[in-house]
Amino acid sequence: xxxxxxxxxxxxxxxxxxxxxxxxxxxxxxxxxxxxxxxxxxxxxxxxxxxxxxxxxxxxxxxxxxxxxxxxxxxxxxxxxxxxxxxxxxxxxxxxxxxxxxxxxxxxxxxxxxxxxxxxxxxxxxxxxxxxxxxxxxxxxxxxxxxxxxxxxxxxxxxxxxxxxxxxxxxxxxxxxxxxxxxxxxxxxxxxxxxxxxxxxxxxxxxxxxxxxxxxxxxxxxxxxxxxxxxxxxxxxxxxxxxxxxxxxxxxxxxxxxxxxxxxxxxxxxxxxxxxxxxxxxxxxxxxxxxxxxxxxxxxxxxxxxxxxxxxxxxxxxxxxxxx
Amino acid sequence: xxxxxxxxxxxxxxxxxxxxxxxxxxxxxxxxxxxxxxxxxxxxxxxxxxxxxxxxxxxxxxxxxxxxxxxxxxxxxxxxxxxxxxxxxxxxxxxxxxxxxxxxxxxxxxxxxxxxxxxxxxxxxxxxxxxxxxxxxxxxxxxxxxxxxxxxxxxxxxxxxxxxxxxxxxxxxxxxxxxxxxxxxxxxxxxxxxxxxxxxxxxxxxxxxxxxxxxxxxxxxxxxxxxxxxxxxxxxxxxxxxxxxxxxxxxxxxxxxxxxxxxxxxxxxxxxxxxxxxxxxxxxxxxxxxxxxxxxxxxxxxxxxxxxxxxxxxxxxxxxxxxxxxxxxxxxxxxxxxxxxxxxxxxxxxxxxxxxxxxxxxxxxxxxxxxxxxxxxxxxxxxxxxxxxxxxxxxxxxxxxxxxxxxxxxxxxxxxxxxxxxxxxxxxxxxxxxxxxxxxxxxxxxxxxxx
Lengths: 324, 451
Hints:
The structure holds two protein chains of two kinds.
Chain A: H1 3-6, H2 12-29, H3 34-46, E1 49-54, H4 60-70, E2 75-79, H5 86-90, E3 91-98, E4 101-108, E5 115-119, H6 126-138, E6 140-143, E7 146-149, E8 155-160, H7 173-178, E9 179-185, H8 190-201, H9 214-225, H10 231-243, E10 251-253, H11 257-273, H12 281-292, E11 297-298, H13 300-304, H14 309-319
Parallel strand pairs in A: 1-8, 1-9, 2-5, 5-8
Antiparallel strand pairs in A: 3-4, 6-7, 10-11
Helix pairs in contact in A: 2-3, 2-4, 2-9, 3-11, 10-11, 10-12, 11-12, 12-14
Chain B: H1 2-46, H2 52-73, H3 78-86, H4 93-99, H5 106-121, H6 134-152, H7 156-188, H8 195-217, H9 221-251, H10 257-274, H11 279-288, H12 295-316, H13 318-332, H14 338-352, H15 379-382, H16 415-432, H17 439-450
């Protein structure tokens, strides 16, 4: 971002335009999956972590690397395996020999980057998974008695495979709650698949250009946090979250207050991406799916009847449709 | 300036929304009123309900008034209006701008500017229909039309209701009239009157109360007519008796002149109310024993005159008067009473002239010492056969044409109904133990023979 651009970091219209440019640029490298790109963008603009769930080969890693390039962020990929240790993620103290003698020095792990791709996070042991908790929530890493602050912006984009459950460790609810979004990456259509093949197997792959840097991203996040929400819209948003706690045969446990916070941020970011400085009912409704689907625990009835989390959310949204 | 314009736009839409809400409520309320009207009118087709139309109109008007009242009490707010406007594709820009209209932060200012710009550019999107959806309007109209149509459909119950209402109205007037007469009668009862005179007045009052009760129970034109005829007769009779009383008061030393005058005035008033010839003529003819020559009205007078005549006849000749009395007893087969008087007079009249035969009334079953009323006889009897002579098995009784005596139009009942009534009364009597032992089986056999 040039000096002239930096002077316009507080200009909402300009920043919204830059964010829209970023989204457009990401879509150059990712064919189809527009909803996924949009939701990842929302998480980026609000500083949320994302859990991507989908079959292997759907472009999850490519998406993260593209985002890294577009936002000019340092990018690290951690392949989670059962034998991965927490220190492999966070880093560790090592003995350093020098003329003054031996001393411990902290060697940062791969988590010290702006953008972390935690690939197949459910394959690591809970101990290793929990190593991410502090980083995701506090943006710090504690090794020994020393806490190390992670650089901003910091995002974790974790992936998990929904079908290969053997030898996996499902993420506990506490950790799931740390993810702002759970995004379902669906199989592309035939047309999209054709474009994907053309893009990746062609002779001239699309060049991805930087559109915004970390500083711009933080400035956008600050602007987004100031976007006003009308009382009626806020009521609607809270009604949705509270509805997950109302008696419902398909819900065993409802969403946490963190869900309401995430929903507000996501709705604001969506409005911002669309160039609006206010939140609409539609913003809230569309953000509800990725925010709530991993925070609702479906009941046995729901599982046995094949009712998905998205079906439950759809029902809640239909019941809570604003009456004007 | 821009903010004022922004608020003015919202206010304009609020007025329109209020009007639309009012019309929506009105259509809904009229539908409800129409539904209530249909229920009322449907009920009125089968159940006597004279004021069904009024109730229907009131229900519809009340519904409409409630719509007006609710609309006045619950006008739309600016927030609601802004939200409604936002629903036309403004994505809650307007409500956000309205709620934050006093915020001064740069983002708020920009947001308001964005909302205003959108409003200016796309105001044509906002289309708030005034009238509710046509289906609801049509439904309400159909309900109202159905209520009106039902109100216009004739039915026996409605005819009967109208007739009953008219009868009740007339009966009510008559009851008031009788009340007034009763009050005046009460005022006439002075201490100076003799016990007999007081008893006569009390008897008149009792008779009038009986008429009042008849009016109270009148539920048909025939019953009303019969009650009217009776009342007129009673008025005439009472007029005559009161004239006599007035005369006796004048003659007597104890009564005040005031009482006599008041009584005479009352007598004249009653005569007027009876719609009959003036008491002077009547009395004169009665004294002459010739009054019954002119139709039913006069025939009824015959009794009043009979009484007068009776007194006169006694002064002229006891034999005839007694003769009359004896005949009365013979007719009734029960002995004395008003009827006996009547008959006696009839006989007297007969003796003096041809008029005293109006004693068809003597066919009644009144007894002498009890308050009585007049009864009607069936036409079949009144019109049957000769004016004089024996009829049927009553070899010792005379029957006279009712025209000259006390008779009213009889009512027609089916044979089965009459038998049914008798049978019911008989069985009730058996149950109450009113018959001598051993007679129960006779009565039961008798009625079972009809079956």
